[in-house]
Write a structure and sequence with these properties.
Layout (H helix, E strand, L loop, with lengths): L1 H27 L9 H8 L7 H11 L2 H13 L5 H9 L5 H5 L4 H9 L1 H13 L1 H17 L9 E6 L2 E6 L4 E2 L2 E3 L28 E3 L3 E2 L13 E4 L5 E4 L2 E2 L42 H7 L48
Antiparallel strand pairs: 1-2, 3-6, 4-5, 7-8, 8-9
Length: about 350
């Protein structure tokens, strides 16, 4: 009896210690990365999947810096009179990531990413955390567009098939045409519209086909490290993005690479070089737009956060396929974008 009385407190104490140890072990385990399905990723990449490879290679890492997208678009809008080499020099001096600087060659694309900021941020999140799956989704959408008869060689771009991979390149080395299409109709069977996504004038084609406006001259930016010819998409190595023949790494402090905390293999080599986190240079880039900061950027530690975000409380244009956003006339005005054939 005496032994039983003294052993009971010991058992309770050991039980408490075991519980605390298990709790500590549980709480120290890193959070698992939330993954989006292929169907979600296909919907996410639909607006850019038919763009030339090098442009996609600029858009995806740039999307992981949504605050810089806002800053760069605002900067371009405020410097409409700056053209040519002067523009390139001033852009080069900005503290943005190389990928964001690259998109100043395509002001309409940059303006569209700013306009659809929640989509942009989710695209960046998917790129950082599911790079291989994103590249697979892009190839799937290209296959669908090809089967629908909407992706083929034309005077503006070359469409090549290498095994199961579809490669899209400009027909001319220094002029890039950004295809105009309805991302919810261009792939055959209609897709559900990404929540809150709005078409941008000059990048949207009214109907199931694909059109082209005026080309963007990229030759003037060739001398800068972020210029067009420095980017590529390596489809044969898990769809990695290359900059000067090296894997490009996003060091965004806005989009969290959740794979780093799983203890397993990550999609990125974080040795990296000097790509700079924008927050080091511009801690407050939103300049009086707290709604954007709190709405679109409040919680990047969770996958697919933008789909349930209040920032998307807008109409999703569920049946919208009209309204006069037709191609053929270059990049039309509106939305803060720059007109014509870009900066030549």
């Amino acid at each position: 009896m005496k032994y039983g009385r003294t052993s009971l407190p010991l058992l309770v104490a050991w039980g408490l210690l075991a519980t605390q140890a298990n709790f500590a072990q549980t709480t120290s385990e890193p959070p698992q990365a939330a993954q989006q399905s292929q169907e979600q990723l296909q919907q996410l990449v639909a607006p850019i999947a038919l763009y030339p490879d090098a442009l996609v290679a600029q858009i995806l890492p740039a999307a992981s810096y949504p605050e810089q997208i806002v800053e760069a678009a605002q900067w371009l809008d405020a410097h409409k009179g700056v053209q040519g080499d002067q523009l390139a020099k001033e852009v080069d001096a900005q503290p943005w990531d190389e990928s964001v600087k690259a998109l100043t060659q395509f002001p309409a694309v940059l303006a569209n990413m700013k306009q659809n900021l929640a989509w942009t941020s989710e695209l960046g999140d998917a790129y950082v955390n599911q790079q291989q799956e994103v590249s697979q989704a892009i190839q799937t959408m290209r296959q669908r567009a090809k089967q629908a008869g909407n992706l083929k060689d034309n005077p503006q771009e070359k469409v090549k098939t290498q095994g199961k991979t579809i490669v899209i390149e400009p027909s001319a080395p220094d002029v890039v045409y950004v295809p105009e299409y309805d991302p919810w109709l261009a792939y055959g069977a209609p897709l559900a519209v990404f929540p809150g996504w709005y078409p941008y004038p000059g990048l949207f084609w009214d109907g199931p086909g694909i059109g082209f406006g005026a080309g963007f001259g990229v030759g003037l930016f060739a001398g800068y490290g972020w210029g067009w010819h420095h980017w590529d998409f390596d489809w044969h190595h898990h769809g990695r993005i290359e900059h000067d023949h090296h894997t490009y790494v996003s060091h965004s402090t806005t989009i969290v690479n959740r794979n780093r905390f799983t203890g397993g293999q990550t999609h990125f080599n974080h040795g990296g070089d000097s790509h700079r986190a924008f927050s080091e240079h511009q801690p407050n880039v939103f300049h009086g737009t707290p709604a954007i900061h709190s709405g679109a950027f409040g919680g990047f530690t969770h996958g697919g956060i933008a789909r349930g975000n209040a920032f998307r409380g807008q109409s999703s244009f569920g049946g919208f396929h009209g309204g006069g956003f037709h191609g053929g006339g270059g990049f039309h005005g509106g939305g803060g974008g720059h007109g014509g054939g870009g900066h030549r």
